[in-house]
Amino acid sequence: MTLSAPGPCNIQVRGQSPMEAYIAYTHDTDAAHSDSADITPTQGMYTNAVLAHATDNAVLTEVEFLDPASGQLLWASNMKPRVGCSYEFYSDKFTCPMTNFLVALYGSDYLGHPVRRLSEAYCVGQEPTRPPAPSTSTLAPSSTSSGTSSGTSSGTSSGTSSGTSSGTSSGTSSGTSSGTSSGTSSGTSSGTSPITLPSSSPSFTTATTGSSTAAPPCNLKNIIMDVFLVVDTSSTIGEDALEYEKTFYDNFAKAYTVSSTGTQFAIVSMSNYSYPNADFNDITSWPQLFGQLNQVPFDGTVGNDLVDALTTIQGMVTDTSSGYRPQINNHLVIIFSTTSWTGGDPTTVAAALRHSGVNIAAIGYGPQANIAQLNAIVGGQDCAKSASTNSDLQGSILSWILAKTCSATPYCV
């Protein structure tokens, strides 16, 4: 290299590290060792914290939020280490500075070289306060109680439920509960039905607004299953609803034990063409699934080529190197679609997949979703549902698909 201009000069040498960073967010910010996480932070008055996992023994030291338009620094925090968690680093508390912003993680790899990883975050609407999970046991009536439960539902309802305890019971519960449900919620967020799961159910977190989620009829953590997630990235869904879709899939996945011996996940994107984002070998834990979902880009092209998407899945089913397990008896394709299919009629390839033992369920989201077409490709009745709001999606639709997977026999073939 020769230099012709006089005076000093600077030379920058840049390299690329294989280190990957996975980012999540938690609202349980009073417990630094909580591993409960969501794919997006919550906006409004809620406080959040950044959780992060780094590969290759990397150390993360700082996180910054940046304005995506100007690059202006919005917030910064040190990343503190912790042990015994999937996400081994966490930040200070924060409230969303704007609807979407860039997240920059700083640290060093295993050789001590500085690294920086950049991603984008979208803040979603507020979620209601979750009450403690109720006991599933039936208590015998007793004449002694230091508190009474009032305001529980007694036959009829008007408006939304007002069913929180106005007293605290100790010992045994009193013989009857009094009160009828009327007006708006008392003790929980107004106009909402927060999720309550029986104490014997697996722990998973979902947020609903106006749509309740019932507990699944089995222990989802014990299910062994291969799941293909078809992610609609087309122009019809838009960037905001794509985040709702990712959150739905994230809430679905974390109800299970994500591992090579438990429930496996593969991801296929779909717009006017389809491509595999990850096969079963790429995802062996929930943080990896979270990271892969978070990296699915908004394509923005017009169309839902289900033929291409299902053909891609068919290729994974027959490819012995994809991690697909033909020896197990629970295989599921979940199709998320916001518009009519393009690229040909997918009923033939869908029938071939179902004939091979793969269950197919579908969710039509938004006003342009074609539920009649989705019913034509799924396996049997009650295997396609429509949702018009994010509340329905994260509530009743999530409850429905979780319960489906509890079946010991094929359920959507």
Automatic annotation (TrEMBL):
Compositionally biased tracts (Low complexity): 135-215
Protein name (record): VWFA domain-containing protein
Region described as Disordered: 125-215
Domain (VWFA): residue spans on this chain: 226-405
